[in-house]
Amino acid sequence: MSITVSQVSKKFGNFQALDQIDLTVEPGTLVALLGPSGSGKSTLLRTIAGLETPDTGKITINHRDATHLDIRKRNIGFVFQHYALFKHLTVRQNIAFGLDIRKKPRKLIKQKVEELLELIQLQGFGDRYPSQLSGGQRQRVALARALAVQPEVLLLDEPFGALDAKVRQELRNWLRRLHDEVHLTSLFVTHDREEAMAVADKIVVMNQGRIEQIGTPAEVYDRPANPFVMSFVGEVNIIPDTLAVFNKGYLPSSSLPAFIRPHDFEVNNLPTKNSIPATLKRITHLGWEIQLELVLPGDLTVTAHLSREKFTQLDLELGQEVYLQPRQVQRFEEEQHHAYLTANNQIL
Ligand SMILES: Nc1ncnc2c1ncn2[C@@H]1O[C@H](COP(=O)(O)OP(=O)(O)OP(=O)(O)O)[C@@H](O)[C@H]1O
């Protein structure tokens, strides 16, 4: 079941929530809509679901024009951040809800509900009420309820947003396995880049109602289309005045800012061929890696990430001088800086 969005725009009053969106979701893929708050992710998802009508453009689901199709005829399952389970119904009754209102035979409903309880690993919880479940369990029930009516498309709006980090991680791995098992086409909204990277086949990076880039997690991370994407999908050092800081042979001269990921700095105690001297200002233990805050000539502070092993080997002390050598530097053409500059205050 494929989804195609062509030239879809949507305004709320004077506010352009979606601006000429083009997107194709291939059958069987799990796609993440990633972007800062207010970038239009939910509006796009709701438009595909039929909860919003686009002002212009077209939406096709499985090659059928669905732009103005009634929501009930789209064969879509929807899961929201705030598990909208019916409080007065048990887990079993919640899962059965969509089948009940479609007046499916009792025997089939019973069988389907048991299958889904097994799928979400909540056998034995069928007679509980939502208030007797944890947040993660409730969200799994919400998923089972959406899956009960056998949708071909599953849309999830920040499904794990309200859960703590550990449960969130478990559930996202589980969602990935479930997606592969059930052979759905799924689209989910998140503002968490790690979640998008960990789960999705493709990531759609959104900003101010537009799509900045569509690509696999590796593509958007390693070959970002513009400064906005580079900054949004991972940490980055932006060296604005490359002429002043780097022009002494450290890097090829350029008037464009240099974008360097913290783990793309090689750190050494002694100068190497093209290294930059820097003073070590702060050391932070991030768990499996160490973050260094370093001051470059010209008083520019950058961060570098080191493995624990390398950190131990260097035997670093605060205030000492080290030498940085960028392994990889990205630069973007002038016109690609627009999105970054306008969204700058949201991501730095
Ligand atoms: N029904 C509405 N009426 C007016 N403005 C709306 C409506 N729905 C959304 N908006 C506005 O459209 C913009 C995009 O909202 P949307 O919910 O799509 O963003 P989002 O990327 O999902 O953000 P978040 O991560 O915060 O949920 C926001 O500025 C929001 O205030």
TrEMBL record:
Membrane topology (UniProt): Peripheral membrane protein
Alphabetical list of SMART domains matching this protein: AAA (SM00382)
Principal location class: membrane
Subcellular location field: Cell inner membrane
Key words of the record: ATP-binding, Hydrolase, Nucleotide-binding, Sulfate transport, Translocase, Transport
Top-level taxon in the UniProt lineage: Bacteria
UniProt signal peptide: none
EC number: 7.6.2.9
The keyword Cytoplasm is annotated on this UniProt entry: no
Record-annotated ABC transporter domain positions: 3-233
Any Gene Ontology CC annotation: ATP-binding cassette (ABC) transporter complex
UniProt name for this protein: ABC-type quaternary amine transporter
Organism the protein comes from: Stanieria cyanosphaera (strain ATCC 29371 / PCC 7437)
